[in-house]
What we know:
five-stranded antiparallel β-sheet
Amino acid sequence: MASSSSILLAAAALAALFAVSYGSALTFKAGPGCSATKLVLIPSIAISEVEVKEKGADDFTELKESPAGTWTLDSKTPLKTPLSVRFAAKSGGYRVVDDAIPAGFKSGASYKTSLQL
Length: 117
């Protein structure tokens, strides 16, 4: 029969595995008003300093944050998709999700990334 300290050690190891493996996946929802020239992003997790890079572009373009926690980009020309997203992480540094917003994105659609935060 296992001692109580062995059981506690096994439980702690399992808890650590779950904590490392099961973070929250970052999802971006395309908010109301999205169009070929306007992007409205609603992230599933609080992030800051959100920027996007259009397909073929060299640089990222900053999005404007609203008090409601949405991020908006108004462009004079149609956005070249897919869009990569860069943002500041609370833990420090920046994260980039390549091709996070696909071609043909639509208001109301959610786009799950493989990034766990």
